[in-house]
Fold this protein.
Amino acid sequence: MILRSRHLLGLEDITAGEISLILDTAESFREILDRPIKKVPTLRGITVLNLFYEPSTRTRISFELAEKRLSADTISFSTSVSSVKKGESLKDTVRNIEAMKIDMVVVRHSSPGVPYFLTNCVESNIINAGDGAHEHPTQALLDMFTIRRKYGKLDGLRVVLVGDVKHSRVVRSNIWGLKTMGASVAVCGPSTLLPYEVERFGVDVYTDLDEAIDGADVVNIMRIQLERQQAGLFPSQREYTNLFGMTKERLKRLKRNYTIMHPGPMNRGVEITPEVADSKSSVILDQVTNGQAIRMAVLYLLSGKKEKEKEEDDE
Amino acid sequence: MSKADYDLIISGGRVIDPALGFGKEADVFVKDGKIAQVSTETDKTEKYAAKMPPECVIDASGSLVVPGLIDMHVHLREPGREDKETIITGCQAAAAGGFTTVCCMPNTDPVIDNQETVKFVLSRAEEADANVFVIGAVTKMSKGEELAEIGDLVKAGAVAISDDGHFVQNPDIMRRALEYARMFGIPVISHAEDKYLSAGAIMNESFQSTRLGLKGSPSVAEVIAVVRDIKLAEFTGSRVHIAHVSTAGAVKAIRDAKAEGIHVTAEATPHHFTLTDEEIGKEFNTNLRVNPPLRTKRDVEEVIRGLVDGTIDCIASDHAPHAEEEKDVEFDQAPPGLIGLETTLGLVKTQLIDKGYLNWADAIRKMTYNPARILKLPGGTLEIGSTADITVIDPEKRWTVSETKFRSKSKNSPFIGWKLKGKVDCTILAGRVVYQNK
Ligand SMILES: [Zn+2]
């Protein structure tokens, strides 16, 4: 089993076999993270560019650490779209940096489709670290990895994704991945934050949190951004918390061995109470650790794949 | 008689002139830049042809001979963005697409909201390979705030007014524009898009925008705007023309309004009767970013139905050239618009005629007589005495849209690589051959 593509652009077109391969590979890297010396020579001589056009501390640090633990050479370029707008085009920027002999590019950008766009600009392997509200494949992979580690499987589990479904790339990638792996997926949020025809993803759709989580195994809670309230998508933070905040009382509705997840950063007291966030069933910190293993696995699996190899595969 | 009786003969073609209800094999004779004769007595043509130099006799056997096509919605970018298109290159593209007349939208820099700019465009067009008519702005700078000097614009030659690219969001301003335009007998062309509903939108709002995470403009943004302008046209008794209809709801609103006798007309573009928003996610091709956005399959079907039942009067390209560097960017950073002058005819044949929706006479009517009638333009007919603007079409010619063959200065077409049927053989402007397919 190998990955078909030399890039990781999203989970929409990835097979169950490929996801299993990534999760299995991550298991062995996860084990390395528990060793006193957490570094392996796997990517020695490979240069990875972390291209972050959106402010992100967590994902960038997670990728950088994963790269370093694989002994890759790394370079990070962080900027904001607004500051770049007047200057050089994205294509020119990436081409210029690639001319310094880069092998892989990890990209975060506010425009959906940018990772795909880059595959036409440069020869490097492209890893999507989040493109607008489109996809965030490594986040969904680490979420699935975390779930699989606890339950030993993904198929047959009931997973509820709660919050700003409309603007969330994490939700989209989770839907594609979880459904491919046979989980049953529900989304829940205020109707103004559920995108048009969201049911066509093949998910159950709820606007009542208590109904949504009834009998669920996993609840993955998305961060709600204050700017959505300013844009008039819900009337107040207070009302949001009353309707969609995950509280201790609500946990009773879940299955006995339930799991609480959050991709971070959390707004404690808004979408999740501190009690729930810090409870025994919360795997929020495990998600962060597992993110390392997943990113190491993805970097490793893609690193050997060059254009030439792809052509041979096609024959 | 030493001099030839005619300057040009187009012989052996099937002549279609919807304005005259004419559709049979005939020879067209041109003299002094005018249509001198359309004759079905084709056996007599030879004696005239014999006296003429061979290049003045066009063999159109197997081809269609139609009035020069009219595109009532193009962006020529001059003045202001001559790097994208000029009046000269835009008209070369028009000629290559079979159009002898184009109407240019006023969203240039400066905006065509004053006499001087109208005169500038018309003077530049004197040397061009197509007739150019100017659509003036509704409001100063197309800002939607104060009426432009519409009387002045008309005096300088404007045939309609539009703030195309923008909806005249304030209904009171639109009401005044309609009332005022009526004094001059010109329609107001509406780019129907409620700005509040479409703010920040990159594509159509549908499952595709949901899937891709791109901000969508809901179809109701168009429907509301169309309904409002229809109601204002009804109330004022003025004429409104709806540009680039893209939604099922707008088609229905226009159909109902026409049934009630309201003075509304409409156009549709080839991309809106051909492409859906499902194309966007395949490669994030920025040439698919256009406004109004590509809609759903159902919208495309209803736009076609509107063309079939006459709800939609015209086919117009909304030719919108953009520079390569502007389109070679992130999808949501690319300016909306695509070029269409050179692919319209092929798409009409391939998507509408070959699929059995329209016959040639209906299609030609929507690209000649109907726009001419709406804008009161000369032409759009082969009537004897009218200017000899003629398009000769090879209806069965198969060709592939190629980036290198565009006459337009810009190449932003989503149809590059498409195999189409139906191509211009020859375009004649006032008796002069301005394009010939080799
Ligand atoms: Zn427009």
Summary: Residues 284-303 of chain A form the longest helix (20 residues). Residues 137-283 of chain A form a domain with the Rossmann fold fold (CATH 3.40.50.1370). The interface with chain B takes residues 12, 89-91, 109, 111-114, 116-117, 131-135, 166-167, 169, 172, 195-198, 200-201 of chain A (CB under 8 Å).
